[in-house]
Amino acid sequence: MNENRSRGELVGNRRFRLEERLGEGGFGEVWRATDTLVSGDVALKFVRADKAGEGAGAALWKEANQSRKLTHPGIARIYDVCEFADEAGFIVMEFVDGEPLSVKRAKQPHGNFAWEEIEALVVQLCDALEYAHGKGVVHRDIKPANMMVTGAGVLKLTDFGLAAPHDSEGARGGSPPYMSPQQLRGMRPTMPDDVYSVGAVIYELLCGKPPFYRGDIDHQIRHQMPEPLAERMADLEMKEQPPPAVAAIVMACLAKEPDRRPAGVAAIREWLNLPQRTAEEMAEAEAASRPEPMNEGVLAGKKPAFIVVGSILGLLVLLAVGYFLFG
């Protein structure tokens, strides 16, 4: 079984050609690949070699099963799971042509965004999470690195590898700087865990760091109150303060006890007077996130219009020439 993958390698019974290594995290190493059967880009998530003995196959199937039932413009889609003899198993996922929000933040001149720059992204995040929560799924690993943003500004929530049904058996998992005190303790996953993570994400996007990011992070999340957002930004000499309502809802999300947080992501949107996207807007976002389709006439075996018109004109010319020569 080859664990040293390289560009141009064919995997999945030679159906997928590896093009570019995109990165890795948790259990998976992710590659952009060409599906040679349909001539399109996909993302392939392999089990990392150092995780191969930790129930990796089960983890792949779990992620696929959790995500396959989630069909939403703001959630990267899962297409299939491939397992062949003498090959590492992998998930076939939607390829999102963009970059992680964590990378976009790091590229900002001061390492942070103004609220106006991320307001539309927060709307999309709330939309995607509200949908997932409505399906009874808690993400449990919400962080900027798991949010892909396309060139058109479409946000796609990725990596449901730690997702769990609401009130299923607890397990720690996740990324500590964005985890609620309850998730750190390994308690049953609940939607308020994701609400806490949303608060930590917005906090980081606005001031460049999550609420707790150095030292004993576990202890701080469980026992210390985070520094108010406005004070953190003042300490960092950031002049563009967010609206008071934004600072207030972020701190509410970061409450230690779940019942002190907003009741759900819908409550975050209502507090901030953020609009919920209409079905038409979601459809437009979905279309904007897809690659340009091939010419339908060519795919259906039909000749494009300009070929048909050219053929008719050519026939008319031949008839005219024949009339003058033989008429």
What can you tell me about this protein's structure?
There is one protein chain. This protein is α+β, with helices and mostly antiparallel strands and 327 residues long. The protein folds into two domains: 85 residues, Phosphorylase Kinase, domain 1, CATH 3.30.200.20; 189 residues, Transferase(Phosphotransferase), domain 1 (Orthogonal Bundle), CATH 1.10.510.10. 39% of the residues lie in helices and 16% in strands. The chain has twelve helices and eleven strands. The strands form three sheets. The protein has a six-stranded antiparallel sheet, covered by helices on one side. A three-stranded antiparallel sheet has the order 7-9-10. Strands 8-11 form a two-stranded antiparallel ribbon. α3 runs antiparallel to α5, α3 runs antiparallel to α9 and α5 crosses α8. The radius of gyration is 25 Å and the shape is globular. The N and C termini lie far apart (76 Å).
